[in-house]
Amino acid sequence: MTQYNIFFLTPGQQPPIGSTGVVLANGGIIWIGEAGTFPTTATLGTHLDTDPVFNTTYDYRLATQAEIDEYEDILANPGE
Amino acid sequence: MAANLNIIDYITISTPSNATDFGDIATARRLTTALGSATRGVLCAGYTSASIASMEYVTIATTGNASSFGDVTVARNALAATENDTRGVIGGGNSNSVVIDYITIATTGNASSFGNLTVGRGLLGACASTTRAVWMCGGSKDELDYITIASTGNATDFGDALGLYDRTSACSSSVRGLQIGGYTGGAATNVIQYITIASIGNATDFGDLTAPRQYTSACSNGTRGIAGTGLSSYIIDYVTIASAGDAVDFGDLSVNRNYGTSCSNCDGGIA
Predict the structure, then answer these.
(1) Which of the residues in chain A have pLDDT under 70?
(2) Model confidence at B252: pLDDT above 80
């Protein structure tokens, strides 16, 4: 079953596989995939000694219907 | 509607002349942004028929076509990128994006989250010293905000520009950042303003472009600042960053274009 999640990146994190690359007004990014397959461990970018410690888990939850509607609206009305 | 172009031109910043064809990018786009290390130029995101996330890079010394680099974290256009030669940072974008991403220029791969701008905005400028990156105006705002490039986190307020500017760009020496033209008060502007990157504070008038221009792009070799493209424009101007004054004609781009971008390897520039 297809599931819509919303995740919020913290410094150093890259989006997980399945990210749509579409960000909502609340800063969350929509992920679409099979239910239960959202990765629990974050993909991290390069870390410098001067960077803070990166979070190794994603901040995510199921998207609400309003957030799914906002995502669909962005796809239907791409803005410059 | 403006066409999406795949054209890359190059100039040698120290020698005023017309631009020369460099090669092509793979995905024609507009409202994109670019950053450059001593070796590579990286083109980041933009707009085709929708916002895109893809990045491409060129090896500046070879004048060849671009290759795939990876994706920014979220697809967007009207964003602004800068770098400290090692790390590239890419901020803002359409729909008042607050997103800041970073990449390691020498290694291809997807961008990572850096943090957020203080105020979301697109059509902004970005410039940097080796330590600090500053995003300038955009979204008809006067905000200037900065990050320390080597340490991820949210941006901090830097000061204010001379007014509410949009459709602008920026370039810098290791000391000064210049905001180049743009759109303010309902019209394109010729205003160039500057900040001292190491000192938090408001912008100061620098001089004027040779003509009012919006959707500018800018790059530098650390000494000379270059202002190219615009709205259906082939004009290239230059200024000497260390000495305030009006811009001088540099030469012409190979073709008129809209919403272009530029970067440099400190020895030469591409647009």
Answers:
(1) none
(2) yes
